[in-house]
Amino acid sequence: EPEVTQTPSHQVTQMGQEVILRCVPISNHLYFYWYRQILGQKVEFLVSFYNNEISEKSEIFDDQFSVERPDGSNFTLKIRSTKLEDSAMYFCASIGDRSEAFFGQGTRLTVV
Amino acid sequence: AQKITQTQPGMFVQEKEAVTLDCTYDTSDQSYGLFWYKQPSSGEMIFLIYQGSYDEQNATEGRYSLNFQKARKSANLVISASQLGDSAMYFCAMREGGEMEGGSYIPTFGRGTSLIVHP
């Protein structure tokens, strides 16, 4: 069964450093999302991506964040200068034909 | 206003018993979709079941069924014959109608219900 793959599974970074989180979505899907989940809290939408551009983004997705699909398969989320409050689980989701989100296993980002 | 409300922060159930996890939603769209996800302690989000607003039958997937009551705007998840491996957080989510209805396709999530299955 096709699945969404995220790397790395866990990343520890120093405050102020840039991080890139990677995702390989399901190959025939067209919409991709990034969500984040701060420990113990709800799953929050960050950004959606369609046809190689951002289609929608939340208030959380400020200038520190960017997304790209550089090679037609990988889908990346970059945080330019990490803050302590960016520590969270980041999920990539690939959207099926009923708009159900198939999630990757997540990247746990820890900013120290 | 919350679009998805899960009023039960935690639920306990004995192994082999059935359990219902509550979810109510708020939308003015005619077309929408409802989803349930399971998040075990390992952190991944596992898609369980989907119900479309126009589906006349309640969705079922194995031991999971969705008790869809459109007039009450509720979409409760029923897990039959609970297993120890069902212990996890469960999230209800909704995708609204999309651009034609002035909404968004992006699924929004409730705060989750923690289910503990004990032997």
Calculate the terminal CA-CA distance of chain A, rounded to whole Å: 37 Å
Element pattern of chain A in H and E = EEEEEEEEEEE
Class computed from helices, strands and strand pairing of chain A = mainly beta
Gyration radius from CA atoms of chain B, angstroms: 14 Å
Low-confidence region ranges of chain B: none
SS class of chain B: mainly beta
Q: So what's the overall shape of chain B?
A: globular
Q: Give the proportion of residues in helices of chain B.
A: under 10%
Proportion of beta-strand residues of chain A: over 45%
| Quaternary structure state of the chains depicted | heterodimer
Total helical segments of chain A: 0
Shape of chain A: globular
Radius of gyration of chain A, in angstroms, nearest whole number: 13 Å
Q: What is the overall number of helices of chain B?
A: 0
Largest sheet of chain B: 6 strands, mixed
Identify the biggest protein-protein contact and residues per side: A-B, 23 and 23 residues
Q: Average pLDDT across residues of chain A?
A: 90
- How many strands appear in the DSSP assignment of chain B? 12
Question: Would you kindly provide a written description of the structure presented here, covering whatever features stand out?
Answer:
The complex is a heterodimer of chains A (112) and B (119). With 112 residues, chain A is an all-beta fold. Chain A has strands at 5-7, 10-13, 19-24, 31-37, 43-50, 53-57, 65-68, 75-79, 88-95, 101-103, 107-111. In chain A, 0% of the residues lie in helices and 52% in strands. In chain A, the strands form two sheets. In chain A, strands 2, 4, 5, 6, 9, 10 and 11 form a seven-stranded mixed beta sheet that branches. In chain A, strands 1-3-8-7 form a four-stranded antiparallel beta sheet, with no helix packed on it. Chain B is built from no helices and twelve strands. In chain B, strands 2, 5, 6, 10, 11 and 12 form a six-stranded mixed beta sheet that branches. Helices cover 0% and strands 47% of the residues of chain B. Classes of the chains: A mainly beta (112), B mainly beta (119). The A-B interface holds A 31, 33, 41-45, 48, 56, 89, 91, 93, 95, 98-106, 108 and B 33, 35, 37, 42-47, 50, 52, 91, 93, 95, 104-112.
